[in-house]
Fold each of these.
Amino acid sequence: MHIVFCCTDTNAAPWLQGLREALPEASIENWQPGGQAGDYAVVWAPPQAFFDSQHALKAIFNTGAGVDALMKLTLPADVPVVRLDDAGMSVQMAEYVCHAVIRHFREFDVYEAESSQARWAYRKPRRRCDFAVGVMGLGVLGARVCRALAQFDFPVLGWSRSPRQLDGVQCFSGEAGFGDFLAATRILVCLLPLTPETEGIMRHDTLRQLKPGAYVINVARGAHLVDEDLLSLIDSGHVAGATLDVFRTEPLPAGHPFWQHPKITVTPHTSARTLREETIAQIAGKILALESGASVAHLAGVVNPDQGY
Ligand code: NAP
Ligand code: GLV
């Protein structure tokens, strides 16, 4: 069995070592143009030239949860794409979103500013029931985030493509449920995959439907948000601010208005990082399962090409 590794912006050496330890029977190489074609590919944002050189793949393993970059390429026909299924990301995402929600709700950003001026001043407690959190995307990450938020007694709403049921979460689905979901939400969290249906989903006419004093947390992909619409709704006072981890261009360009905006917190696409050990264990386990005759349909995280996620 031959495995080809092609992850851009990644130090390949520890990945190759980890994969070799997990799959001692396999030959594993970092991809080079002209190299041997693989049975399996382990990739993150590979160039089209990579797939143009692969004609024997049985499966493609993405070392992230989102496959939007991959789905823009021409992939070999009928080869399954398998994305990361949690692999240590959901707990990180729950930490990040709970931190952002609580920081905003409890006004810790204001306290930070006041303490930097040596100012001792209380703020009036706000009512939790006025800060319903709406999570778009109830998959592996969104469901974990909802559970974590519910532990803090926030009213939690969720929205997905197909109907879902989650304990303690008021669930909405599809186009039909979107308006009611937005109207009941004060803090909006985006955990959708980026697809043609979800691109630009946070724009003026949707954000306008949130409760006044809304807050936006984007931890999915930058292209889910129309940057100018967020800025104009903050200017108008309808949106109180945002915590943004992902951007249309990454790194966020110097001079982008988000960097210096007093109501926007920026982090560098770090809300849920790919963890090497967990990722290698998950991918190696799936390769071994396939090699022992398991059907792809039994693997978690297989991408539906028609849905794009
Ligand atoms: P997932 O398990 O595939 O869940 C996706 C969820 O989105 C599902 O609930 C799905 O609905 C819903 N959805 C998809 N299209 C929809 C639509 N058109 N309308 C309404 N709901 C829709 O994905 P995941 O593992 O939770 O990851 C979600 C995303 O997080 C990834 O795609 C990636 O972009 C992002 N991410 C970001 C970071 C970071 O560091 N910032 C890290 C990891 C992942 P159904 O339940 O009906 O299928
Ligand atoms: C990170 O953004 C991922 O999709 O895993």
Note: The pocket of glyoxylic acid (ligand 2) is lined by residues 64-66, 84, 274 (CB under 6 Å).
Amino acid sequence: MDTKQATRLSKFLSLHLRHAPGAIGLELQEGGWVAVDELLAACAAHGQPIGRSELDELVADSDKQRFAFDATGTRIRAQQGHSVAVDLQLSPAVPPAVLYHGTAPAALPAIRREGLQKMNRHHVHLSPDEETARRVGARRGKPVILTVEAGALHAAGGVFYESGNGVWLVEAVPPQYLREE
Ligand code: HQG
């Protein structure tokens, strides 16, 4: 599979495993899971046929490990990024002292006022390193990197989760826990 094809399929899967499962007749099970057989049948029925081996390749090669199979390999889910109501059944975890968030300069005035909000997603997404945060922010132009005092927020009662692919999730980050470098 070439890179272009992989990106196209990855976007199709992201759309339906995170945001619009119903659009191809899927319903996410508890934990966000979908039976692989059902997913492949739904993709084929909606003009985007994917073979099982292509799916395996996509899951293994995804730069950000966006998708994961369950232990039996019969179900698949997106690891994070959902907008549909889903309980990923993640356990709260202790974050590192600092985490990072990349955003666009235009969002800064609001972020300074309200802190980081989850917007359309279920959580605010934070990165363990500046490099990843820079890539996330660069999706919207020239990125600004914010340092998040995750340890302090956790100590103050903030509940953090670590998704299977190293993204840290939290309900919100109030402005006093943000530093602009
Ligand atoms: C901003 C991609 C105004 C926030 C990425 C961001 C990531 C505010 C945008 C993952 C705000 C939301 C998540 C406030 C936050 N006022 N703007 N109070 N608080 N914002 O896409 O973190 O490719 O929902 O800074 O790589 O950019 O999908 O979140 O710019 O891992 O796998 O509102 O999505 O991964 O945007 O990205 P998003 P994000 P995938």
Note: The mean pLDDT is 95.
Amino acid sequence: MKNFKSILVALVAAASVSAVGTATADSVKIPTHNWSSQLVGAKIVGALFEMVGEEVEYIPMDSQTVYQSMCENDIDIVHEVWQGAFGAAFEKVVNEGCVMDLATHDAKTREEWWYPMFVKEMCPGLPDWKALDACADKFTRADSGGKGVFIGGPVDWLKNDAERVEALGMNFVVKNAGSAAAIWAELESGIKQNKPVVIFNWTPNFIEALYEGEFVEFPEYQAACKDDPAWGMNQEMAYDCGNPKDGYLKIGVSHEFKEDNPKAFAVASKINFSNLDIAKQSNYVDTDGMEVDAAAQRWLDEHKDKWEAWIQ
Ligand code: TMO
């Protein structure tokens, strides 16, 4: 498994490329975030743009504030808009008219609380969230005040987990991991010690190729759940539901992108990743231990028949 240090190295490398690169006002600005499929996909998308003669600049960036940056034309494209994590931030700027909802990938996504399969034997009734809650004492830690610990993602993946815990009256606290690698370390340590863990996970991801496990089933997602406190089992609070199960994965672009970079825009309109594409982009790095650039090149080498049509 890829460790956090090598991801950091990749991020620093991406930063120095943009610092010394041949960036001009017209170069396509692509953000790089803190999970593997996005880092690899960003390089694939960038390579496709370069094939049609555009210049590309990679900018390490917070995955929530990037939507405002796209509004301000400081970023041109977010090629992995996950509905669960970023739907609210994305739809806000689309509604404001400063970001374009350009395309929807074939990939269907889910981002949710998840446990490795051995936990199921220790907490009868899973995957129902009430069974998890009844089992909270098995997830406590020295510093959790007697409550179960849920290992959430880095805070920029904004999931409203703490709000959900409160709205559903769960006997849990949310501990945000500092990086994706820190979540996987918590998972591995739980598995090694046979100690129950519940972590933030998503699909498509490399985890499903390595470990058996399940998502926790919360009350079914509906848009009203996050906007309307009266909706759902808690009449006074929003977020009393899970994340979408069949979430979208979209491509969003700045409104100036089409005019500033018409060739890249034409390519971006055709890019379409499947679940397997996203899983592979993650697996090459997190399972096979490849560097981000090599992983991007591998995907390009192995999927020529797919992307050739995108650059016509
Ligand atoms: C945005 N993510 C895939 C990490 O949930």
Note: Residues 35, 82, 85, 111, 153, 157, 202 surround trimethylamine oxide (CB under 6 Å).
